[in-house]
Amino acid sequence: MAETQTRTTTPPAHGAEDLERGGPAPVDDELVRTEPLLDTPRADEDLRFPGCRRIPLLRDRLTDYDGRLEYWEGRSETAWVLAEPTGGVHEGTSRRLPHLVERIAMMRGAPIASFGSVDLLVRDASGQPARMMQADETLYLHPRRALTPEGSLVIGEHDLPDVVLEVDHTTDVRRGKLLLYEAWGFPELWVVVPPEGARRTRPAGVTIHRLIGGRYRTEAASTAFPGWTAAEIFAGLTQSATAQTCRVLERVARALGAREGTGPDDDPMLRAFGENKLAQGRAEELTAVVRSLLRSRDIRVSDGFPGDVAALAGAGREALVAAALGCADEADFWRRLGRPRR
Fold it and tell me: Of 115, 119, 160, 195, which is most buried by a Cβ count within 10 Å?
């Protein structure tokens, strides 16, 4: 994808409150009006990646680099890498999200795909890498009908994920990655600052950025996951699962299902679980009927009777009732069912 797009909107004013809540940092008007999208040296210089250090990285070595890249720029062949190694807080927070949405997907009755820390790649006119950035977590609500990446997510070729998560533990996305996500058209970005990474100018919490009219706006709740509030997302990502968390996930799942006409019965695992519960209930009902008939005839049975409840239910109600009414004792009951016991 050649970098020849332009933005023509005028950036809104952002005050101290916006910065405190994680809103976009102020952007120079000259950057966003008529110049090619982030296509000048000055534009790259305007991007900031706090918590990262700058290193040279040649284009032909890009695919071999196995470290954590925040951003790579092809014109200068420069990469910004985390100044501190990625630790348990960062990884633990981001990896909680797929577990939460897996529960939502089951109750919703349709899969949600997580692609993790995928490379986001922009190609130049010749098809060579021009820019690359790594997301912390990416979610597709409709993976079956989306063109999803098998390797890098190429901007302009693959469908964009419905939600991207960024964890600001030792970093701050507001003056760099946030601007790029906005410029590339990512519809919804969640930025979480875990308690361990909080500071006065960057309090702990989740900020939901929703793309509206080509610019990000801060929202109190997700649009992709209807009704899931920033506070609830933060609790799910940073705290152990509670009954309240499960109720929230079920509520969000049902809202998604109502929007799309799906439900728990559409999930293969839950459907199988429901069928098993139904079969178990039927088996227990038949066992109670057989016990009642034998007791009414003063026929004693062993303490473990009937043992294999599922096998008993497999005989069928009519056969069970006939055997219970005609048998002389427990052994005769099983013989009448064709299952003699020693």
Answer: 160
